């Protein structure tokens, strides 16, 4: 078996309504989908995505540089193929373009597609290929807590989510006036009670001083974690913040390589790793980070805006992971979308990684 053809698709998928966090207002998702077809007729699907612009560059990287490197290769040589992609054209993508951005996102799509081929050839879902640990996966919801929503709406949606069976919900912080965040968190805590986990997410907005002061104030309401409080490149700053507040610190959705995760662990700078297979170099590197974290007794709760069909399978096969973020933005794009019921995702028995999209989605959202 070898790789016979490679195709890419760029989709622009509008959201039902704009959403806002501390640094972005998002109206659509830019999705790059990659299809690798083998000589035996198996289609392996990978993808990557951005909130709005930038996905076209990932597509260009796949089209102009990576695709031709894949033709004729043995898809079972996944680690060799993806390692080599960082060093084609004598350019050294690894150090000049990759491991922190677009090149690693393109490699991630290739890695996923090669895993999809492996799973489909084995006629098994990814979680079974990796070895199952959980027989279902808890969902936590973020879609009720955007910063653009009024406190009244935030409270209403938090109560609705709890009534739907969620035991964990997340809300955004990072308002211009952090006092507003304090009052919003207080209102949510009072509305849902103490048995529900409430997480807060500043999307990297604050400096260390602001995060330290307000992190201590937020401790009043016992958040389950404080996500991306400051610049994710500032590992030392996170280590300092961790000593100043009680709430556990979660990082990962803006980190694109396993070495940075290692350094966070080394410097005792985070309590929870939110490694995302679309940000690091795919499923392979996600597993490496999760396994490293397990040896340090650190939990992994992967970041997910659209990729829950993939991350649910990865969490299902991990001893130190148990929960996946649910954001139902692309339900009509995935071939096998996952929707939580009573706060849990059920596992699929369909062969593959869960990264295949439908031809209808390509027709509806595809860009020239
Ligand atoms: Mg986040």
Question: What would you note in describing this structure?
Answer:
- The protein is an alpha/beta fold and 368 residues long.
- It has two domains: 3-123 and 359-365, 2-Layer Sandwich (Enolase-like, domain 1), CATH 3.30.390.10; 127-346, Alpha-Beta Barrel (TIM Barrel).
- Helix content is 39%, strand content 20%.
- It contains 13 helices and twelve strands.
- The protein has helices at 55-70, 78-85, 93-96, 102-122, 126-130, 151-163, 178-192, 208-218, 235-244, 258-266, 282-295, 308-316, 359-365, and strands spanning 3-20, 25-38, 43-51, 136-141, 168-172, 197-201, 226-227, 249-251, 272-273, 299-300, 323-326, 344-346.
- The strands form three sheets. The protein has a six-stranded parallel sheet with strand order 5-6-7-8-9-10, with helices on one face.
- Helix 6 (151-163) packs parallel to helix 7 and helix 10 packs parallel to helix 11.
- The structure holds magnesium ion (MG).
List the helices and strands and how they pair.
Elements: E1 3-20, E2 25-38, E3 43-51, H1 55-70, H2 78-85, H3 93-96, H4 102-122, H5 126-130, E4 136-141, H6 151-163, E5 168-172, H7 178-192, E6 197-201, H8 208-218, E7 226-227, H9 235-244, E8 249-251, H10 258-266, E9 272-273, H11 282-295, E10 299-300, H12 308-316, E11 323-326, E12 344-346, H13 359-365
Parallel strand pairs: 4-11, 5-6, 6-7, 7-8, 8-9, 9-10
Antiparallel strand pairs: 1-2, 2-3, 4-12
Bound molecules: magnesium ion.
β-strand percent reads 15-25%
| Structural domains: how many | 2
Any idea what the shape is? globular
**Can you tell me the CATH superfamily of the largest domain?**
Enolase-like C-terminal domain
CATH topology of the largest domain: TIM Barrel
| Strand order across the largest sheet | 5-6-7-8-9-10
* Number of distinct beta strands: 12
Q: State the end-to-end CA separation.
A: 31 Å
| Ligands, deduplicated | magnesium ion
Structural class, by secondary structure, is: alpha/beta
């Amino acid at each position: 078996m070898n790789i016979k053809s490679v195709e890419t698709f760029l989709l622009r998928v509008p959201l039902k309504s704009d959403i806002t966090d501390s640094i972005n207002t998002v109206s659509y998702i830019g999705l790059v989908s990659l299809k690798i077809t083998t000589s035996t007729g198996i289609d392996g699907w990978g993808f990557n995505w951005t909130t709005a612009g930038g996905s076209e560059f990932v597509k260009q990287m796949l089209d102009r540089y990576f695709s031709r490197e894949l033709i004729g290769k043995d898809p079972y040589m996944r680690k060799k193929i993806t390692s080599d992609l960082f060093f084609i054209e004598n350019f050294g993508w690894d150090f000049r373009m990759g491991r922190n951005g677009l090149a690693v996102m393109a490699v991630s799509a290739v890695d996923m597609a090669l895993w999809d081929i492996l799973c489909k050839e084995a006629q098994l879902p990814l979680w079974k290929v990796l070895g199952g640990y959980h027989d279902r996966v808890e969902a936590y919801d973020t879609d009720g807590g955007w910063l653009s929503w009024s406190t009244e709406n935030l409270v209403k949606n938090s109560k609705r989510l709890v009534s739907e069976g969620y035991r964990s919900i997340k809300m955004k912080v990072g308002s211009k006036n952090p006092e507003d965040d304090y009052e919003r968190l207080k209102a949510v805590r009072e509305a849902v009670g103490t048995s529900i986990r409430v997480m807060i997410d500043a999307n990297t907005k604050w400096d260390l001083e602001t995060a330290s002061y307000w992190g201590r104030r937020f401790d009043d309401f016992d958040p389950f974690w404080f996500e991306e409080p400051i610049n994710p490149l500032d590992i030392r700053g996170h280590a300092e913040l961790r000593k100043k507040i009680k709430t556990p610190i979660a990082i990962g959705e803006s980190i694109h390589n396993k070495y940075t995760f290692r350094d966070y662990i080394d410097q005792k700078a985070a309590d929870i790793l939110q490694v995302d297979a679309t940000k690091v170099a795919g499923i392979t590197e996600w597993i490496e980070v999760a396994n490293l974290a397990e040896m340090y007794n650190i939990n992994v709760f992967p970041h997910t805006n659209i990729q829950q069909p993939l991350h649910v399978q990865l969490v299902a096969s991990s001893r130190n992971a148990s929960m996946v973020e649910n954001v139902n933005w692309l339900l009509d794009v995935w071939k096998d979308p996952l929707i939580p019921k009573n706060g849990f995702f059920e596992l699929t028995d369909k062969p593959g990684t869960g990264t295949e999209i439908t031809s209808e989605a390509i027709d509806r959202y595809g860009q020239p």
